[in-house]
Amino acid sequence: MTRTPKFPPESARLFSDAPSAPPAGVHIANIDGASRGNPGPAAYAVVMRDPNGHVILELGKRLGRDTNNVAEYYALLAALDYAIGSEIKALRIRSDSELLVRQIQGRYKVKSPDLKPLHERAVKMTRQLNYFTIEHVRRELNRDADALANAALDSGSPIASPTPSADAAQRARAHAQEAPARPRRISARFERGVFVPAQHPDLPEGSEVLLEIHPRHK
Questions:
Q1: For the packed helices 68-85 and 116-126, what is the interaxial angle rounded to 10 degrees?
Q2: 3-class DSSP assignment, residue 212
Q3: pTM for the full model?
């Protein structure tokens, strides 16, 4: 008797061992993360192809001292960020990290405090796509992303090379949005029930932020 795999409700509509036929126009992103020392110097990479198999993005960036699993998540977030910013509606992720894939699929619990916020953000971003799936592949089938991650780790500088057919907006997104935003602080006044920032926060319209209030006494 064949048993149908069960997933948590939030993952059921996104993932399946035997998915139905994907829609037309699916982009494919191979992602990889690398760390020498684990934790140690880390980097991630994304190689994205359009539905015709043409490479539209090769992105690699070195992180600070992090684990391999954190680097893998940064690669996933960078791929999702680029897809959403480029209005790509259907995306297939391929990764050789079984932990990352199974956690996003909802099969493995996320126990690491370093991974939980990255996992939550990734799941939230997948819901902005009309179609999303993630699959585990053997390392030899992920060589392009692996080589790019190691190249970024060796060079110590970002590598981003969208194809010439990508428009200016896509090129800007590849550089400006290649990594998830780090938390930052700005001052604000509370006037008539509204927080008024002392400087323009430069955030996309509709962005959600978390306020941590530390009153200043004059």
A1: 20
A2: coil
A3: 0.67
Cβ-contact 83, 29 below 8 angstroms: yes
Q: Both tokens of residue 3? A: 């048993």
> What single DSSP character describes residue 206?
T
pLDDT tens digits for 90-128? 999 999 999 999 999 999 999 999 999 999 999 999 999
What is the Cα–Cα distance from 201 to 217, expressed in whole angstroms? 23
Strands 90-95 and 27-35: parallel
Q: For 156-189, what is each residue's pLDDT tens digit?
A: 767 765 543 344 334 434 443 444 444 556 677 7
Alpha carbons 178 and 48: distance in angstroms, whole number:
13
Side chain identity, residue 57: L
CB-based contact 63:43 (threshold 8 Å) = yes
User: For residues 48 and 46, what is the distance between their CA atoms, to the nearest angstrom?
Assistant: 6
pLDDT tens digits for 43-57? 999 999 999 999 999
* φ, ψ for residue 135, nearest 5 deg: -140, 150
**What 8-state DSSP symbol labels residue 108?**
S
CA distance 158 to 29: 18
Residue 104 CB contacts under 8 Å (≥ 6 apart), including other chains: 15, 76, 119, 122, 123, 126, 134
Q: Report the alpha-carbon angle 41-177-171, nearest 5.
A: 115
Give the whole-angstrom CA distance, residue 144 versus residue 94: 11
